């Protein structure tokens, strides 16, 4: 480990706010001992002197890289914000990874609160939460659901890890089985999943029932707006008369991408307002629609949302709904009405909450979410249903059934489901085996979506006049 001076370390972290104590001493006296409010210069000066003392008197060599990372992490953690954190240099490559590229993993979006906010009585504060498995990916096929929480990987407890460390561990190694400790509906159980090459999706489209366009947007990244634009042009060429946009389990991403896509549908009006801290020097911003649109105002639009619809996807939902451009169907959205900024720092990144956003109707949806125009509660499994569901996944029954009935059809799905008692909601079983059938198809033959076992999508189709 290369030794660097305390002066270099501290000044690299906090510029000239630190001072370096030259005089060697066998004892250390803090520059303050009372608990009255102290200004930042005093605090940093004291930390600098403490480091100087320890550097000269601590028996072993100090790893200054570790000191640097710990100081930065402590500062960011002290903000008291679950969405603010420091990404260390050795995790920076994963953080920067192109979300449209291939990588080895289990295929799911995850979230985890900062370990500084652990509440022993609330598993969501310390477990790794599955936000949305990629359709047909390893996590999806293994039976992981949105809202599941992971507490261990191959027997190793991950509850004290930060989000990036836990997510990196969850990727595993291609082709090597991982045993996940899963918490669902108060029950702990294990699922086995095998990482493989996966592609992070951002959007997909198809035509349903001859003339209804279906567009699924799973995340907002640098490529999403351009991808969505191409999908919309292709759907227009196909002669669609209405459009369904699926934002379920879209946990957000880049706000600019969500606004650009919203602008495809709006010729006027406010899309969102951002409000910054006065001392930041950033003026409050109101984003308004451009006059030109990509989708005709005569084309009805329906948005599908649920509890996994968050952040940038909520911005798009409110933008279209408040301007009267879309009807919203599903369940209450997540409620993340704040924006984060990422800055490069010390070889890594600092992510911090920087602004509130307000809907076109000047409402903050932070911690409350958006209530749909037509509410359809998300189905959940009871404790007893969860046990049955887990047993079906772990005993290989789906794999055996598909070996005996290799061709996908609604009839085969119904045949599989009919073999189980009324003790479990058959929709979950149908979706599970349908997903496995789809995965085994060649990619070019795989359906983008199927409405047969999707109550929310069926409700949208009925709203648009389809008799199903």
Q: What's the main sheet like?
A: 6 strands, antiparallel
Q: Report the CATH superfamily of the largest domain.
A: 2-enoyl-CoA Hydratase, Chain A, domain 1
Query: Distance N terminus to C terminus?
Result: 67 Å
- Mean pLDDT metric: 87
- What top-tier CATH class of the largest domain fits best? Alpha Beta
Share of residues in helices: 25-40%
Structural class: alpha+beta
What's the gyration radius in Å?
Answer: 26 Å
Q: How many distinct helices? A: 14
Total number of β-strand segments? 19
CATH architecture annotation name of the largest domain = Alpha-Beta Complex
Could you name the CATH topology of the largest domain? 2-enoyl-CoA Hydratase, Chain A, domain 1
Which blocks of ≥5 consecutive residues have pLDDT under 50? 1-28, 30-36
Beta-strand portion reads 15-25%
Give the overall form: globular
Summed up, the domain count is 4
């Amino acid at each position: 480990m290369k030794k660097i001076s305390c002066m270099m370390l501290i000044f690299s972290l906090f510029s000239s706010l630190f001072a370096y104590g030259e005089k060697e001493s066998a004892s250390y006296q803090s520059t303050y001992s009372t608990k009255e409010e102290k200004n930042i210069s005093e605090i940093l000066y004291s930390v600098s002197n403490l480091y100087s003392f320890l550097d000269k008197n601590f028996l072993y060599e100090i790893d200054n890289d570790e000191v640097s990372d710990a100081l930065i992490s402590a500062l960011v953690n002290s903000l008291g914000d679950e969405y603010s954190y420091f990404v260390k240099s050795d995790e920076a490559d994963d953080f920067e990874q192109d979300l449209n590229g291939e990588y080895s993993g289990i295929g799911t979006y995850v979230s985890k609160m900062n370990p500084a906010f652990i509440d022993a009585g609330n598993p969501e504060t310390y477990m790794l939460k599955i936000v949305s498995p990629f359709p047909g990916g390893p996590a999806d096929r293994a039976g992981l659901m949105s809202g599941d929480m992971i507490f261990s990987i191959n027997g190793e407890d991950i509850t004290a890890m930060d989000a990036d460390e836990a997510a990196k561990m969850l990727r595993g190694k291609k082709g090597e089985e991982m045993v996940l400790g899963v918490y669902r509906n108060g029950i702990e159980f294990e699922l086995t999943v095998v990482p493989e090459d996966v592609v992070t999706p951002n959007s997909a489209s198809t035509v349903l029932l001859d003339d209804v366009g279906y567009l699924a947007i799973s995340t907002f990244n640098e490529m999403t707006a351009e991808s969505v634009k191409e999908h919309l042009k292709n759907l227009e060429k196909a002669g669609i008369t209405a459009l369904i946009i699926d934002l379920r389990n879209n946990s957000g991403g880049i706000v600019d991408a969500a606004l650009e896509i919203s602008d495809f549908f709006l010729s006027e009006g406010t899309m969102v307002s951002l409000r910054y801290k006065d001392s930041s020097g950033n003026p409050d911003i109101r984003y308004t629609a451009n006059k030109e649109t990509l989708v005709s105002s005569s084309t009805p639009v329906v948005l599908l949302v649920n509890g996994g619809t968050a952040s940038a996807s909520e911005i798009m939902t409110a933008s279209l709904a408040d301007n009267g451009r879309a009807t919203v169907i599903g369940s209450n959205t997540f409620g993340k009405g704040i924006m984060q900024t990422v800055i490069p720092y010390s070889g890594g990144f600092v992510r911090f909450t920087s602004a509130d956003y307000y809907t076109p109707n000047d409402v903050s949806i932070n911690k409350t979410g958006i209530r749909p125009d037509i509410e359809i509660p998300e189905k959940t499994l009871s404790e007893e249903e969860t046990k049955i569901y887990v047993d079906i996944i772990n005993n290989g029954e789906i794999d055996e059934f598909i070996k005996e009935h290799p061709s996908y059809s609604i009839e085969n799905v119904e045949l599989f489901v009919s073999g189980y008692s009324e003790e479990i909601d058959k929709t979950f079983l149908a979706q599970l085996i349908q997903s496995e059938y789809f995965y085994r198809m060649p990619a070019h033959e795989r359906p983008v979506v199927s409405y047969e076992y999707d109550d929310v999508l069926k409700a949208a189709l009925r709203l648009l006049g389809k008799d199903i």
